[in-house]
C-alpha cells in the first residue's frame, strides 16, 4: 500500500504550480501513511511542511521540499529492497503485491 501510493509526483506538481492547498493535502497524506509504517522521522518533517503551508510560509516549503523528497525516495528504495530480500513476504503491508 505505501509503495503503491507514491506522493512525490503529486507533491512536486503542486509545488511547481504553487498550489499550496493541494500540496498541504498531499503532504498530510504522506505524514499519515509514514506514521502508519513507523517512519516517524519522515512523518515529522512532513508535518513541518504541512504546518508551513497552513501558516502561509511558502518559501519554507520551497526550501525544504527537495530534502524531504530525497529522504522519501531513500525510504521507498529501502522498503523495496527489504521486500525483495524477503521474497515479497511483506507485500500486502507495503504494497508490492
For the secondary structure, the number of strands is 0
Strand content: under 5%
Structural class: mainly alpha
Mean pLDDT: 88
Instruction: Specify the number of helices.
Output: 5
Order of helices and strands: HHHHH
Helix content: over 70%
- The dominant shape is elongated
Main sheet makeup: none
Unreliable residue stretches: none
Provide the gyration radius in Å: 14 Å
What is the CA–CA distance across the termini? 9 Å
List the helices and strands and how they pair.
Blueprint: H1 8-16, H2 20-36, H3 40-54, H4 58-85, H5 91-94
Description:
There is one protein chain. This protein has 97 residues and is mostly helical. The chain contains five helices and no strands. α1 packs antiparallel against α2, α2 runs antiparallel to α3 and α3 runs antiparallel to α4.
Attribute tags:
97 residues; mainly alpha; 5 helices; elongated
Summarize the structure.
By secondary structure, the chain is mainly alpha-helical. It has helices at residues 8-16, 20-36, 40-54, 58-85, 91-94.
Amino acid at each position: 500500500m505505501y509503495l503503491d501510493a507514491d506522493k512525490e509526483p503529486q507533491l512536486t506538481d503542486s509545488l511547481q504550480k504553487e498550489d499550496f492547498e493541494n500540496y498541504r493535502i498531499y503532504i498530510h497524506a504522506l505524514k499519515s501513511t509514514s506514521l502508519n509504517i513507523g517512519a516517524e522521522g519522515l512523518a515529522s518533517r512532513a508535518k513541518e511542511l504541512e504546518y508551513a503551508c497552513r501558516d502561509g510560509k511558502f518559501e519554507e516549503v520551497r526550501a525544504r521540499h527537495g530534502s524531504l523528497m530525497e529522504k522519501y525516495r531513500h525510504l521507498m528504495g529501502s522498503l523495496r529492497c527489504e521486500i525483495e530480500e524477503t521474497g515479497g513476504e511483506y507485500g500486502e503491508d507495503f504494497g508490492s503485491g
